[in-house]
Design a protein that fits this description.
5 strands; 187 residues; 9% strand; mainly alpha; two-stranded antiparallel ribbon; elongated; 7 helices; 2 domains
């Protein structure tokens, strides 16, 4: 009986320590040191939250940069990759459909960056390679009247380099660049 009471007390102490105190302390420290990230890395425009730097949004307007395709259809409650192998006939069919749709929207496109047609593994990848963003510049220029040079400069300005110079790849956050593009279009 003595061992049972000791086990129960130890369990209660560990539940309080690991299940309540530790999460509250780490959440408090994260909020104090990294308030933007702890709050969801939200993007604010004119006092309104329009999205998060961490989650892609489905921009379909020809005037805006389009994100990677999403198997989850950009529904934040349904994260999902396709799990289709490259040689799978349905994958080949899906890639052909993606390429056809991309060429329809961007008729002058010759070299297609892979991230414009492949589906994001999580369904919410907010980033594109700079090449994929620049591949959309002629379409956006035609639709908005903003010169291709200005749009390419915008892509360069919004390109984030590798973390610590070695991790990841250079990338452009589609939501952020579209918010900046909308500011320019409205002016």
């Amino acid at each position: 009986m003595k061992m049972t009471l000791t086990a129960i007390r130890l369990s209660v102490v560990l539940m309080l320590l690991c299940g309540l105190i530790y999460p509250l302390v780490t959440t408090g420290v994260a909020g104090a040191l990294f308030p933007k990230q702890a709050g969801g890395s939200l993007i604010e425009v004119n006092g309104k939250f329009v999205g998060s730097e961490l989650i892609a949004q489905d921009f379909q307007s020809p005037e805006l940069f389009h994100p990677r395709a999403s198997n989850a259809k950009f529904d934040p409650t349904a994260t999902a990759g396709s799990n289709m192998a490259v040689g799978y006939p349905e994958y080949v069919k899906a890639m052909k459909e993606q390429i056809d749709a991309l060429r329809k929207d961007n008729p002058n496109l010759t070299d297609i960056p892979a991230d414009l047609v492949t589906i994001s593994g999580s369904g919410f990848d907010p980033d594109l390679s700079p090449e994929a963003a620049k591949a959309q510049v002629p379409r956006i220029s035609k639709e908005t009247g903003i010169s291709e040079q200005e749009l390419n400069e915008l892509v360069d300005a919004k390109t984030t380099s590798r973390q610590l110079g070695i991790f990841g790849e250079p990338r452009v956050n589609v939501t952020e660049i579209n918010m900046e593009l909308l500011k320019q279009v409205k002016q």
